[in-house]
Amino acid sequence: MMNKVGSRARLYVQYQDVVRKQLKDTLKLANIMEVPRLEKVVLNIGVKKSVGDSKTLQLVEKTLAAIAGQSTVRTNARKSIATFKIREGMPVGICVTLRRENMYIFLDKLITLSLPKVRDFQGLSPVFDGRGGYNIGIKEWGIFPEADDISIDHSFGLNISIHTSTHHDEHAYELLKSLGMPFRKR
After folding, report:
1. Which of 5, 14, 36, 136 could make an S-S bridge to 166, C-beta 3.0–4.6 Å?
2. 67, exposed or middle or buried, with CB in 10 Å at 0-12, 13-18, 19+?
3. What CATH code would you report for 38-178?
4. Calpha distance 74→91 (Å, rounded)
């Protein structure tokens, strides 16, 4: 893969060698083990069209697996909702959880390849969830190079949820900023 240095992901090597030491000094932490780190990245796509068409769900599953680099899981409806013609247990979305090396490879690809392809990109919002987590909403999955290979009539949106080991939004912001996440000015 293009994002690997030796046997480790490039972004992980950067985190281990440079970012951890900088964050320890910047955040004035006493111990290197207190430095925030990435725990997991969750990709999620809700598919309303899958209620009537199972082929759409299969294509979305195939595309998300190509984007993430690992197999996906179908999410099912917990409750029946008559207005949307959804019954309990029907597949309504696809998700995948990335950890360790796959997580760093995906984030590297997101930061260096995909986000610069967004039209009129002004930077990401620096608003966190209050517990050190960060969510990104992507309107079209076409910004990922793997999605171009798979032809589908409709483009779907994608939610990316980044979980960190810290419960402080400021620490999580500094971690993602030092990894190269393009935030807007505060």
Report:
1. 36
2. buried
3. 3.30.1440.10
4. 6
* Residue ranges of the chain with per-residue pLDDT less than 50: 1, 5
Q: Which residue has the tokens 């068409």?
A: 53
Residue written as token pair 């199972």: 54
CB-side neighbour CA atoms (13 Å) of 184:
10
CB 76 within 8 A of CB 90: yes
Residue 42's pLDDT is 92
Instruction: Please report, for the chain, the start and end positions of each structural domain, with discontinuous segments joined by +.
Output: 38-178
Q: Which of 63, 73, 59 is nearest to 144 (CA)?
A: 63
Q: What is the structure's pLDDT at 1?
A: 46
Cβ within 8 Å of residue 101, ≥6 positions away: 8, 9, 12
Which residue's entry shows tokens 């992507």? 138
111 φψ region: left (φ > 0), alpha (ψ -120 to 50), beta (else): alpha
pTM of the model: 0.80
Q: How far apart are CA 25 and CA 21, in angstroms?
A: 7
